[in-house]
Amino acid sequence: MKVNKMKNYKVLVQSLILFLLCIVKTNAQELLTLENAVKITLENNFQIKISNNNLDINKTNVAIGNAGMLPALTGSLLDNNSIQNSSQTRQDGVQTTLNNAKNTSLTYGVGLDWTIFDGLRMFARLDQLKELQKLGEAQLKLTLITNISDVNTQYYDLVQQQQQLAALDTTLIISNQRLTLAKNRFTIGKASKLEVLNAQVDLNTDQVTLLRQKELYANSKILLNQLLARDVTTDFKVIDVLKVDEMLLLDELTILAKKQNPQLETQIINKRVAELELKQIKAARYPTVRVNTSYNFSKSQSSLGFLSQSQSKGFNYGFAASLNLFDGFSQNRNEKIAKIQIENTKLNIEQLNLALNSQLSTSYQTYLTNLELIELEEKNEAIAKQNLDITLDKFHIGTITTLEFRTAQLNYVNATVRYSNAQFQAKLSEIALRELAGNINF
Fold first, then answer.
1. In terms of one coarse class, where is the protein primarily found (predicted)?
2. Does residue 251 carry a pLDDT above 80?
């Protein structure tokens, strides 16, 4: 009997030591805070880097030369040479013949061409380039918000999983204690073999559940590392407290969404771009005036002919004007299409406004419900813990059945999981509302 007690005691001690070693190992891991996760994301995330590069392209394109306001300066060089057998007959009948006659012609110079008026199209183009830069900024903001939102979601998912692991570790210790007590009672003849077998089965079940949860936790770490664009095998731990902001107000979120939502901001900029496109198309109704000037040097030599050598150099200048008189009604057609595109951008803005209001209202209602669930599940967990403590005391003195004990144990685990899940769901609602309002903290 003493031998069996010693064996059971050793099993319990080994389980406690294993649990403590797990805690020590966890404490030795890197503590990854949400702030650090966001910082790493901003530095490493590939989508954010690509959006930054696209914004740099848009900024580079904002230039008066790209809008067509600056002149074009070109240099030219032309050198022609020929060797021919030539024969010439003059009006008086005299014939001249020369074999291997060499002729050379050299021309070079610099020319300038400048469009000084194009119906103000160049100014509309410059404004459009500036709007495209703003569009790139809005798209970068959208990329930032989307990725930071994903990091928040994955991070707090790990927090709730870590909480559930702690609850499963606790219930595993209790199941080990139960098995030890069952074996002791069986040894002294106060319990049947069936009680021991049931305790062993329940312990095995708890171990399987814990292993599955550890697998899910490890895979979730890999996903977060992927979002952070770092080595997916990097080990870390997260904070163990999940706090939800309970002070969000729908009216304030709606106001922020109209000002800061990057998708709405993108549609507003698209409308402005379409308006400037129409302005550029209308510029074709006005004349285009260009001025040009050049300085050229020309020299030619001929072995046969009236002139053996000629040379010239100097300035050329002038201007050209053109006006589209008729183009098969293409101008009217292009303007009509541009106006329809502007109307489409207006409809997109109205549609997005309606969708934002709808999403904000539904997400806020979910947020309020989840806040109530947190309060309810917190009470349920406290009651389940109290019930488990009482049941455990009664089980030690043998006044309740193993079925009643197992029920109390599972009720506590389920209550803990539900409470953790309620907090996580409320946090998801908070993140969704902040994402819609464009108000996620970077």
1. membrane
2. yes
Assess whether 241 and 302 both reside in one domain: no
pTM for this predicted structure:
0.82
Please choose, from the candidates 162, 163, 150, 157, the residue with its C-alpha nearest in 3D space to the C-alpha of residue 38.
150
Could you report the per-residue pLDDT of 137-161, keeping only the tens digit for each?
Answer: 999 999 999 999 999 999 999 999 9
H/E segment holding residue 99: strand 95-117
Within-domain flag for 67 = no
Domain co-membership, 106 together with 58: no
23 occurs within a structural domain:
yes
Token readout for 74 is 């070109």
What percentage of the chain reaches a pLDDT higher than 90?
68
Question: Is the domain of 388 the same as that of 412?
Answer: yes
CB 134 within 8 A of CB 269: yes
Instruction: Note whether residue 442 is domain-resident.
Output: no
Quick one: average pLDDT of 382-387? 94
Domain housing 16: 2-62+119-287+325-436
Q: How many Cβ atoms sit within 10 Å of the Cβ of residue 433?
A: 24
Cα 420 from Cα 418, distance rounded (Å): 5
For residue range 418-433, what is the model confidence (pLDDT) as tens digits?
A: 999 999 999 999 999 9
Token pair recorded at residue 159: 């927090």
Strand partners, 297: 108, 313
418 found inside a domain: yes
What is the rounded distance in angstroms from the CA atom of residue 231 to the CA atom of residue 306? Answer: 83
Q: What is the mean pLDDT of residues 254-267?
A: 95
Among 253, 254, 250, residue whose Cα is nearest residue 353: 254
